[in-house]
Amino acid sequence: MNAESSPSGSRLDPWVDSYAQRAKNISGSAIRALFAVASRPEVVSLAGGMPYVQALSMDQMADIAARVVREKGPQALQYGSGQGDVRLREQILDVTAEVGVHAHPDDIIVTTGSQMALDLVTRTFCDPGDVVLVESPSYVGALGVFRSYECDIVHVAMDDEGLVPSALSEAIATVRAQGKRVKLIYTIPSFHNPAGVTQGPERRQEILQIAQSAGIAVLEDDPYGLLGFEGEPPRALRADDAEGVIYLGSFSKTIASGLRVGWAIAPHGVREKLVLAAEAATLCPSNYAQLTVSEYLATEPWQEQIKSFREVYRERRDALLESLQAMMPEGTRWTIPAGGFYSWVTLPEGLDATAMLPRAISELVAYVPGTGFYVDGQGASSMRLSYCYPDPDRIREGVRRLSAVVETELEIARTFGTASSGSTLTDGESSTPGPDLA
Amino acid sequence: MSARHVLVLSGGLSPERDVSLRSGRRVAEALRSARPDWEVTEADVDAGLLPHLTAHRPDCVVPLLHGAAGEDGALRDVLETLDIDYVGSDAAGSRLAFDKPVASTLVSGTGIAVPEFVVLPQSTFRELGAPAVMQAVGDRIGFPLVVKPTRGGSALGVSIVRSAQDLPPAMVSAFAYGETAMIQRFIEGTEIAVSVIDSADGPTVLPSVEIVPESGMYDYHARYTAGTTEFFCPARLNDDVTQTVNDVALTVHAALGLSDLSRIDVIVDAEGVVWFLEVNVAPGMTETSLMPQSIAAADLSVGDVLARLIED
User: Fold this and answer.
1) Is A28 in CB contact (< 8 Å) with chain B?
2) Nearest CB to B176; choose among A2, A27, A358
């Protein structure tokens, strides 16, 4: 029945055959589209990882921004150093001292959020096919970076104290037996995103020893380190190994994510390469944003502000955990975060959080399905719940809605006697949420 | 022509919110370009809509909401209640078209081929026992078959099921989008989308679009990711089949009492039989949607087509 008239059709994108291989998996997905609904005010979003910037004094932030332009305008509005403002680098060391990290300002490179530092480090270390060991689950934004450089990503088991040392050793041995090279061990030791767990002091030493003896660089991502709810901030891995650890920090959670100021602290040789790579990518980080942060640190009681952030997040964490305990069906498990933004929830056996998402969105509650935090299809029965943005009442309402959704899903699973593993929603990179959810 | 105030509605709370927002932005821009003297505004559908409509009373509304509320007639009923003009089918026609089993039954009554289907709510599986019901349905319809929610678009919750063991997860996926699922015989063939536009001379068929998804299934990814589906417009059909496809589209448009614009999706099998699949009263207008391709192939523009429908 086909006529012979048209030799080829249109794919609506004239460049479709010109894209690099690594760009071919970047696409829309039904899951990502569902998150468009999550932005509506009717929806209780337990999905987003947005810091509660409303806790800042906006009048003070406005004064700081005005002061920067008025008093340092020609510098703030000009190009700057590729490595970042010197004064800010000195101030960053005051912040990192809280987690035991001491260094020279020259060891620091300021970046556009620590996400950029992740990109620079990966670009500097990894050729296509090189292995990066990541936690299981791992930060979705890091997986995206590793994938974009065509790294071979291997998940390593975690428990309630984070990355499991024996599993790490085993993974290194297995990968090496396959003739592949491990370039980086990527870890979030404190208040993990998305798992909500924290490595204990002994665990940290074991991980460092394994990395040192294997000769593999540790990429330590520590955006939440100062947001613990009890006691002193955990001591960073970098505090005990200046040569083997590349440390990533950020002001996104301790001041404001919209400023996009983060940093890396790296051994001398690495840092030189990172600066060159950064200059190639962006010439320099925003001088205006850097000077705003610098002015804030110089004139505001930033440690007090972090304390008040901790109180806000602790209250919300408590609301989440109490609601989960009171309302979620039997068989549901969750981690108990001692800081940070997230709890990792595992559904009763047989349920698929990805397949359940459309029903949740219809019932006006949103979460991030667990599969987005893996590259190998794991995580189907899990989800990440964020408590950082909604207030405690909204969190309780969100969990109430979520528990009803899970009850319905349990009934469907009982009816069909199946884990809904045949979800038609796509997995992998295309299912990962956007920046406001990462 | 005097200046008009046209309000483009998009967004809403359906799983197709993202698609709807993209359609809305595109149509609003097209209308501004086609009629620079008109005031074209955009709004989401939320609690602020009714006060907005009452306060501003647009001359015409373009509802580009996909999924429930936008396509099931409810919003159009509200607009009719407020006595505000809108583009597209009325509430009654939308209700018929949006419910896939109802539309399929009505279309089947006109003599057009419709793949055999059964419609089952989730409760039937629970009360009668899912294994027995699925066994009976599989025996009746045969594999491969298609499972889809009875309401909704963009292929969300739709699965092609090739064996009995894949049926339970497909049912679960469909039920994530609604309480009732349609299980339908799968027709192997060429997917065709036909757009119908009303004009002073009556309903007109635009050049049809043939859909060739790279993955073999025209799912959400294939629909909204440029480069993943090859489109032929006009479709590579011989004259006889083209005529049949066009006749089917016009018959569906009339049988369901649709007006202004609709998109009818069919499959043409190896023997040239044209099978009705579904009809859309708020067709997608995104960069990768089908109706804009048909409009372009007819040497028209989205803005002009919509503007004429508003003017009429």
Assistant:
1) yes
2) A358
**How much is the pLDDT for A435?**
46
Decide: residue B226, CB within 10 A, 0-12 exposed, 13-18 middle, 19+ buried.
middle
Mean pLDDT of B75-102: 95
For A160-187, the pLDDT digits (tens) are 999 999 999 999 999 999 999 999 999 9
Cβ count near A114 (within 10 Å):
25
- B114-173 pLDDT, tens per residue? 999 999 999 999 999 999 999 999 999 999 999 999 998 788 899 999 999 999 999 999
**Is residue A316 domain-shared with residue A397, that is, in the same domain?**
yes
pLDDT of residue B44: 92
pLDDT, tens only, B78-87: 999 999 999 9
C-beta atoms of A11 and B241 within 8 A: no
In a domain, B214, yes or no: yes
For B221, the closest of A12, A28, A412 (CB atoms) is A28
One-letter amino acid of A103: A
Residues written for chain B: 312
Domain count, chain A: 2
Specify the pTM.
0.91
Q: Are B103 and B127 found together in one domain?
A: no
Q: Could you give the CA distance from residue A194 to residue A368 in angstroms, rounded to a whole number?
A: 10
Secondary structure (DSSP) of B108-169: HTTT-B---EEEEEHHHHHHH-HHHHHHHHHHHH-SSEEEEESS--TTTT-EEE-SGGGHHH
Question: Which structural domain range is residue A215 located in?
Answer: 58-299
Peptide bond into B144 cis (omega under 30): yes
Chain B residue with minimum CA distance to A34 = B15
Confidence tier at A272 by pLDDT (50, 70, 90):
very high
CB contact under 8 A, A358 and B156: yes
One-letter amino acid at B166 equals: D
- Domain holding B301, by residue range, is 97-112+188-311
Q: Which residues contact A166 (CB under 8 A, 6 or more apart)?
A: none
Note whether B236 contacts A37, CB cutoff 8 Å: no
pLDDT of residue B2: 60
Both A205 and A316 in one domain: the answer is no
Q: How far apart are CA A226 and CA B270, in angstroms?
A: 66
Pair B23, A52: CB distance under 8 Å: no
Catalytic residues of B: 16, 154, 224, 263, 265, 278, 280, 284
Instruction: Could you list the beta-strand ranges (E) of A115-228.
Output: 131-136, 152-159, 162-163, 182-187, 217-221
Q: Which residue of A has its CA nearest to B210?
A: A9
Band of residue A29 on the pLDDT scale cut at 50, 70, 90: low
Q: Nearest CA to A227 among A269, A258, A255?
A: A255
> Is residue A3 assigned to a domain?
no
- Among the listed ranges A8-22, A30-44, A423-437, B214-228, which one has the minimum average pLDDT value? A423-437
Q: Which two tokens stand for residue A378?
A: 């794991």
Count up the domains in chain B and report the number.
3
Residue pair B194/B249 in contact by the 8 Å Cβ criterion: yes
In sequence order, what are the beta bridge partners of B156?
A: none
Residues B195, B167 within the same domain:
no
- Chain B: give the shortest CA distance to residue A43, in Å: 9
Asked if B238 reaches chain A (Cβ–Cβ under 8 Å), the answer is yes
Confidence (pLDDT) at A351:
93
CA distance A215 to chain B (A): 42
The A residues from 337 to 356 touching B (CB cutoff 8 Å) are: 352, 355-356
Same-domain check for residues B105 and B199: yes
H-state helical runs in A49-112: 58-76, 86-96
B228 touching A, CB under 8 A? yes
